[in-house]
Structure formats: C-alpha cells, structure tokens
Amino acid sequence: MAVVHKPNGKLRICIDPQALNTALQREHYPLPVLDDILPKLQKAKIFSKLDIKEAFWHVCLDDRSSELTTMITPFGRFRWARLPFGLKVSSEIFQRKLSETLCEMEGIFPVIDDIIVAGCGETAELAREDNSAKLQNLYKKCAESNIILNDDKKELFLEEISFHGHKITSNGVKADENKVDAILKMKSPTDVSSVKRFCGMVQYMAKFLPSLSTTMEPIRVLTRKNVPWNWSAECEQAFLEVKHKLTSAPVLAYFNPDLELLLQTDSSKDGIGAVLMQNGQPIEYASRSLTTAQRKWAQIEKEALSILVGLKRFDQYTYGRTVIIENDHKPLETILRKPLSSAPRRLQDIIMEMNRYDIQFRFVKGSKLLIADTLSRSYLPTETEHERTRVLCVNEDISDSRLEKIRNETSRDKSLMDLKETIENGWPPAKHMLKDTCKPYYDMRETLSIIDGVLVKGEAIIIPKSMVSEIKSLLHSAHLGYDSMIRRARGNIFWLQMNANIKQMAENCVPCQEMKAKPMKTPLIQHSDGKGPWNKIGLDLLQIKDRNYLVSIDYYSNYIEVDYLTSTTSSQVIQILKKQFAHFGIPSIIKSDNGTQFTSSEFRKFTESWGIKHKTSSPNHQRANGKAESAVKIAKHLMIKCNREGSDPYLALMEQRNTPRQDTNLSPNEILLGRQTRTLLPSVPKDQHRKIHKRERRKRSIKKHYDKSAKHQPNLDINQNVYFELRENAKWVLGKIVKQIDKYTYIVKSQEGVTYRRNRLHIRPTAVEAVIRDKSPIRVVEPNIQVSYPVIQDPSQNPIPKIVNDTSQPLKPSEIVPVITPTSAPTQETAPLLRRSDRIRRRPAKFDDYTT
C-alpha cells in the first residue's frame, strides 16, 4: 500500500505498482494532443473545464484483474475492485472508455480526467449561451453514465484555458509563459563559474540556432584567461537576447505524442532544474528554489525531489506516458528498483508520489545535463510551499532536554560541523576533495541529512564525540551483552566505530565478565577410529558398589571388554591389558583419562616398552575420552540390569558384541573377529545370509531388465487349437494343446498324432480346427529347438557334478520324457539290459522334448 498526499491536503490510497507495472502490457490508446483539438476550436470564444472526481475509480475490474492488485495493509490484505492509481495502463484504459462515452457530443473534448467544453458564437454572449447548453448536455450524460464530477475544480465560462503548455483563447493559441519562465527570469551571471555554466547550456542549444554563437561573443570573452571580470551593458543585452531566442522557435519544440519523452533533472544545494525534451530539443523548462528545510536534506533526497518536481510541473505531458528520466545521481537507480519499504522515510513519500507516473530511470554524467544543471543553479525564487511530506521525528523516545544537549554538543564538535557544512553545501564528486574529518562519512553520504539541527544517518541520530561515553553507559545500564546492545543502538543512534566501542565496553565490564556463562561448546572433533581392528583402544574404570572393572573398547569395531580388577593399581591394569593383547594383539594407540593408574611411571614404561602411544584426555573434560565413557555407560547399565533380574552378564555382553552397528550393519564381533560368535539366540550365519540376499537382488535385477522388452501372454487351454514351431526357422504346423507342464511350457500334439514339448514363445493360438490322426507310438528323431532364456544362477555356486556309474541316482526331471499314447491303457516300458560296460543308457539330450 502507498499513501499519496493530494493538493487539497487529503490522502490518496494507492498500490506500490513497481512489480505489477513490469508485467503489465500497455493498451496503446492515443491521448488527445494540441494538433487534434485546435482545428475544432477556431470559432470558440468561451471555455469551461471540468474535472472528473477519482477518475480511474470509474472503471470496474473483473475478478482476475482484481486479484492482481492485492495489497498488504496494516489491517490485512485487500484487493482493488476499481482501476487503481499508479498503474501504467490506467490512463489509457480510462481515456478510451471516456472517449467512447462522450464521442458523440459536439464541442466537448475529454483529456484524461479533464473535460474541455468550447462555446461558439458570433458574439461572446452567444458563445456563453452555447457553452451553457453544452454543459447541461454534459451533466445529463455524466449522470446517465455514473460519471462523478469534482465541483471544487470546475472552471466555467473562461475566455482562455491552459492546455499542454499553451494558452487557448478566443483569439487563437499562444505560448504559456510558465513554460519558459525558468529561462526568461534567469538572473544575470555574477562570476566566471556562472558564465561558464550558461555558455555550456547555450552551446548545447546552438545546433538549433547556428547564429547564436555571434550573439554570445561578448559573454564568452569573460571566460578567457587574463580577462578581468566586467559584466557590461553589452553583456547584459546579449544575455537578454540569448534568453529570448532560447524560449522561442525553432529552439522550443512542440510536443509530439509519438516520440520518446525525456525529462532531465538536477539539484544543486539551493535549487532544482528540469527540462522536458524530445529528440534533444526542449519542450519546456522549469526551475525553483529549495525551501530552508529542503536545503538540509541529503543529496539523494534533493535529486529525488527534482524528479518529482519535474514530473508534476510537466504533468500534462508526463502523466499517462512512459517518461525517460535522466539524472546524474546513480544511487537513485538502485533505490527506485527496490521495494518501497526499503527506502528511507522521506524518500518513501517522494517515491510514492512518483508512482503515479510510468518512469524509467537512466543515469548520465553531470557533464551531459547542461540545461538542468544550469537551471538548478540559476533557479527562480519560489515562495515557501507547504510541505506535504509527513513530519520526520528525530526519535520519539528521546527527551527534549537530551535532544537539546545533542544539538548543542553537535555545534561544538568540529568534525560534525564540517560534516554538517558538507551536507548543506553538497558533496564533492571525489572523496579526496573532502576534509579529513568528513572522509569516513563519504560512503554513507546518501543517507546523511539534517533534521531540526540534528545530524541523522537514515533515522539514527549521530552522537557527538563528547557524548559517546554517556550514551554507552546508558546502553549498558542493564548489563546487556554485545549483541543486545547493538540491536538496541542500531537504527536509533550512530557514531563512527560504534560497534567496536560497544564490544570493547562489554568485554571490559567486570561484573559482566564475572557472571558470564560458559562459552558455547566447540565444534565436534571426531577422533580417528584407528587404521583397523584393535589398532586404537580406549580405557576407563567402572565401579559398581565395591567392585572395580577395567572397560576397554576398540575404536574401530566398538568391541567392548569388561575385566574385574582386584585393585586399581597400575600393575593390575597392566596385567589385564597383557591378557587382552595376548588375545587380540598389541594396539598402536591407547586413549584414557588422567587417572593415576594411567599416568604413573609404571604405566608409561609399560606402553613405551610395548611400543604403544598413550594419549590422555583433557582434565575435567570427559567428552575428550567419549568413546571409553560410552563403553563404561553400556557396561554399567548391562551389569546392573542383569544383576536385578538375576541373569548372566556374560551372556548379555556376548549378545551386545553380536548386535550389528547402525552405521555399518555389522556387529563388533564381525568387524574384529570376522565372524558372528555362537550364542543362545538362534541365528543364521551372517555371510550366508548376505550371500542369499545378494543373489536374490541379482535375480530381481535380471528379471526387471528382461521384462522391459517382454509382454505377458495369456494361458492356453487344453484341446485349444494352436500353431507351433517344429524347429527353429521352420514352418509352423497345426496342432492342439494336450497338457500344461508349467507356466510357459506345454505339450502339443500335431495333426499326425506326434506330441512335442514347446515353450509358450513358440506357440500361438488359432481359430483353425486341428484334426488329429492317431498313430501308433513311434519315436521321431527331431533336432531340438535352440531358445535363449535368461539363466538365473549364483555364480558363486559350483555346478552340479555329473554322476557316473551310480545306478541309485534318479534321473533329473528334465531327463524324464512323458509318453502319451492314444489308447486309454498306458504301456509299460521294459528296462533295457545292461551291457558289460555296466553303463547307464540314456537317450541323447536333443530328444528331451520328444514323446510318443
């Protein structure tokens, strides 16, 4: 939401349109221009001008458009039901609808939110009557169309009115003197610098008036070296003549709505200058002085004000059109792109009023803004205007006496007075041109201003050096920490090196340091788990009631050993460690706390003689020996729980060692010993289990890959007519399904009565009736059809060995060929006689699919 102050002092609610305007596509509807209206006003003698109240609100929005205008207010989110102000499409949409409504009315000309009524007649009296009649018709039409007029702004029965920078009268059109006042009333130069600025402006305009250089010669002489200053009558006459030429054709151009509109603005320390141009040729000039309060503004605020003044001064041209703004203050380019809420408060007011216009900011060097720069320094005196921007409170929480003290101390502070002078007179273009006391403020110059005699940075009061100690004491009165004091100070007060000063004060406060909490824990340092099993172990003592135990843990596998100690001496600990080392080997590193049994000379000699590096944790920092501490906790809980329920702690410890770790899914026993140890809990050997799972995963993967190019085939019924392939790439023959062996294997009988075993891949259903001719069982020698199928087999498993001379070994299922005969009584096959070789007779594998 944006709030704009209207000329009558009331407020106008608008939306912040920057983001929405970027996405909107303009409706190009031509706005009325002077050339369109002048031919229709030749006989007009009396004029009236009416203003439409809240013009854009006469246009209703549909639901989709209304949702785009949703804005955030202190009372929630609201969306506009009518066309809001600030959108770049609003003026053209409204102008089209207004023109369509009033297009048939003679002598009435709608121009955005104004309506011009022209009264014609031979005499002024007749023209007045004509104007009155047209007004009555207009009022009636407005009532029918629900158009509300503003009675406070109506101008009735005038002999001349202003339109687009011109005066329209009964005698014709004449230039509006206001558009050239900035040049005509320009004061004569008083020094060489002002002469150079005037010459620069004239030089820019010389391309439209080639003869201007001759007229300028008496003035240009004053810019030469060794020429004393003397503003003679000849110079004054030349000055007046040049101003007259600059404010008349061909220098001053007529406005053309089809050309790009350019507004150049500039602000000096005391004034504002603006010029409206098309194709490099001026259309209108404007300048004005700054008020006493505005002269104390920051330069960025003055430059923004110059843009706003130019837009409003040339409103009849700039409103409803895209305007290119040229200015030499680059920070404005960034601020105008940011959300409204991110701008300083005073700039928010200015930018909100700019939102009424469709502007595009373009940064140019000051040397190219010759006209605007000259006008801003040779400004017209302006009566003190009522500033409608909201009052900026220095700080509502500060007392009047303290504020007065800050003001007085500021006036005694030399560096701040230098800064104040720089702000009032304007910042130089380069940092090295500043006084040393002002250089630290150069990078923040855009946010510095003077409010009621107090220097402020944004909204924060700049504290004089003599009051810094007092303000620091007030900040620390509650003994807040550094961060809290910075948050309290930021946005309210400011002085150079404020953060460093506050930090130093917090660190030097004795009560704060004495009562300060412990520092936050340092980032976790993960100790190495060693290069392999039992390479690095941790040691700690565990005491349960009156019994002491040595707890050892392998860093690599988390394998825990718990050994009873008859005493806690170094010799007893060494004895237990020797026993462990005999089982698992000598570790490279031992980590322990600083217990006497680990820090004694005896233990040191033992580790040195056995080639072990002994590391101890920091005193009073158990976390440094966290691995051993964790093992002690596990062992303690395990033994106490087992003691309470009367179970064997050694069995529990055995199960703990067999329990897989969360990170590796392997148990300590598997990592350290390479196997699971046998316990009372039934289990499958881990290696076999993993191998089975690995094999099943591979089978599933193969099937998934194979099925990508496969398709499910429907099952076949018994006696169903089919075609089947006798052999690979051979002719398909007709037959019937006799039996289904498995999901994809069938026994098929041909029309000759011969049965075959075929895969579903080589069978296809048919509607052709197969006629089976029964024959006596015979064996048909038939080559086997070679079919490729995916073989799912674990490569780690050995193939089944071939068994020789083993009559007790039954044949594999694939070697049994069912024999189907056409008779109801089955035949019994006689066992073959054995020969001297005592060899088992088996038919060749190529006949496996053949049956009779």
From TrEMBL:
GO terms for biological process: DNA integration. Residues 1-168 form the Reverse transcriptase domain. GO terms for molecular function: nucleic acid binding. Residues 688-706 have a biased composition (Basic residues). Residues 685-712, 823-852 are annotated as: Disordered. This is Uncharacterized protein. Residues 529-693 form the Integrase catalytic domain.
